[in-house]
Amino acid sequence: RFPASTDASRASDEQIHTAAERSHARKDDHVRLANSQHEAESRNAFDDVRFVHNSFPDIAVNDVDLHTDVLGARWELPFYINAMTGGSEHTGAVNASLAEAANATGISIASGSQHAALRDPTLTPTFATLREHTQGFLIANVGPSVTAAQAQQAVEMIDANALQIHVNAAQEIVMPEGDRDFSEWKATIDAIAQTVQVPVIVKEVGFGMSQATIRYLGTTQVAAIDVSGKGGTDFISIENQRRQRLEFSYMTGWGESTVLSLMNAAAVNHDSCRKPSIIQEEAQQHRAKPQVIASGGVRTPLDIAVALSMGAQAVGVSGHFLHTLMTSGTDGLIAEIERWKQQLRSIMTLLGARSVAELSKTDLLITGKTAQEAELLGIS
Ligand code: FNR
Prior knowledge:
alpha/beta, two-stranded antiparallel sheet, 15 helices, globular, binds ligand FNR
């Protein structure tokens, strides 16, 4: 259990000898560096969006129902703790605390990448602790470099209700020990989606999704996409800081913002913008469009309301909740999530939205760089 103000440990480079030790150190580095990125939340594209105020909400706080339907399940709350960690002793303890907070507040939670445990089964407890600490909706996590059998193993490792496949090419390219060949990713995602026995989400890791990406994913069997855009945790910057020299510092800021990614998804999913042949094929195969989930740079319940009103079915939060855990401990994270629940309910009341579905009918003003980019893409 995490007390307030725990510093993530850092293994010094001289101590790191084996591949396993390097992997543990990487997991600890990610948590430490991501945590430091969220010490002061910065401006991002959510600041380009605002709701239009109406003086007559016409509803009461008690009328608001926060539930959402995701991946064939009912979630009582439309936000969750998104993928982060596991794979070392320290990050196993982080997972236990995150899951405890999820369970206490009734929100869903995703595991960090389980590759480390697929390679080295002695690390399984650092992920299995998630299921030991929550009875709620739990999501497993792998990348598109594992086999379908390994993906199913990851699901079983934590008795997960769904599986995320992270697509993180931008991170891998900057990571010194990262993947260099992405040519099999689409085929691997297909194989995993056809094999695993739970719904599959394809997620970014803070670089967002273009219309081309979203259009492609709409032709696959995946149940949902998490656009996970830029604006919060920045893995290019994190991987740069882990290098001896800052090789790729000029790449910081790469990617699509979460807000623009949601606009991309809305444009792709709007039937008038889709090829009639695709719509027909979907109908023939009784295939639904992937649900849209948002994450990346979510700092407040207002950001959640904006993402939901822009068409997200649920909203994931990583960096902010990690930082809350690191500075305020497990109890502090539970208190923060409870505050967010109350405040989201208040904001929805002010907007006269009784439900997540009604939020999508509210009027938004989109300004600044986001408006300019949307105009260039023809989706404003
Ligand atoms: C992540 N993220 C992540 N995503 C994933 O699919 N698998 C993973 O193993 C990890 N690991 C990871 C570690 C840490 C410490 C952080 C903070 C994040 C990415 C995460 O799920 C999310 O997509 C991005 O962090 C953007 O959201 P925030 O942090 O801006 O809310």
